[in-house]
Amino acid sequence: MTLTEIKKNARAEAFARRKDAFAARSAADCDRLKTVLVDHAGKVLAGYMPMRTEIDCLPAMAAHAGPVGVPVILAAATPLKFRRWSADATMVAGEFGALIPETGDWVEPDVLIVPLLAFDRRGYRLGYGGGFYDRTLEGLRSRKPVVAIGFAFSAQEVDEVPIEPTDEPLDLIVTEREIFKPAH
């Protein structure tokens, strides 16, 4: 089986686990993330607009003491850019249906909340397969220190995410049950 096939199968399994966790979600799921972000007050934060069954980071983004951006896909196989966001921003549909601010300044994050399908204790994540976050993290990290926080349901943890050389590790993983720093 090729790595592409392995990742495809892993994504299908991860979607199912996340769907079950999403069905059991609670309003308190984001509390640990809010606690973590207190340590990053004043820094530029980038989160994401939750889609489908992704865990909701919007309460933490809205509570952040500093500028907040959300990802904008400009083209396939390119890094993400981040447009400044606030809870009252006018949002429009972007690529893949993700909501983006209709207008606003571009920001470069110091802290990046990363969505995912699965994660492991090494700090690797399984994304949707477009490579957007890996390219983005590689570029940001070549210019400055950036903290990449994986935010997920604990049910999304797997023993080992299949990885390739271009996969960028996470610096911290936050679930509704725990916060941990991966060993990578």
Automatic annotation (TrEMBL):
Cofactor(s) named in the record: Mg(2+)
Gene3D superfamilies: NagB/RpiA/CoA transferase-like (3.40.50.10420)
Catalyzed reaction equations: (6S)-5-formyl-5,6,7,8-tetrahydrofolate + ATP = (6R)-5,10-methenyltetrahydrofolate + ADP + phosphate
Keyword Methyltransferase listed: no
Pfam families the record matches: 5-FTHF_cyc-lig
A GO MF label: 5-formyltetrahydrofolate cyclo-ligase activity
Keyword tags: ATP-binding, Ligase, Magnesium, Metal-binding, Nucleotide-binding
EC number(s) recorded for this UniProt protein: 6.3.3.2
Transmembrane recorded as keyword: no
Family matches, as InterPro entries: FTHF_cligase, FTHF_cligase-like_sf, NagB/RpiA_transferase-like
Family to which this protein belongs: Belongs to the 5-formyltetrahydrofolate cyclo-ligase family.
Full protein name: 5-formyltetrahydrofolate cyclo-ligase
